[in-house]
Amino acid sequence: MTTHQSGASVDAKKPFYHLLYVQVLFAILLGGLVGTFFPTFATNEWIKAMGDGFIKLIKMVIAPIIFFTVVSGIAHIQDAKKVGRVGIKALVYFEIVSTFALVLGLIVGNLFPVGHGLNAKGNAEAVAGFVKQAQAQKTVDFVLNIIPDSVVGAFAKGDILQVLLFSILFGFALMAMGERGKTMRSFIDDAAHGVFGVIAIIMKAAPIGAFGAMAYTIGKFGPSALTNLAALIGLFYLTAFLFVVVVLGLIAKMVGFSIFKFIRYIRDELLIVLGTSSSESALPQLMEKLERLGCSKSVVGLVVPTGYSFNLDGTNIYMTLATLFIAQAMGIDLSFSDQLVILGVAMLTSKGASGITGAGFITLAATLAVVNPALVPGMAIVFSIDKFMSECRALTNLTGNGIACVVVSWWEGELDRDKLNKGLDRLIDPSDIETAVTTG
Question: What domains lie within the chain, and their CATH numbers?
Answer without folding.
Answer: 2-438 (1.10.3860)
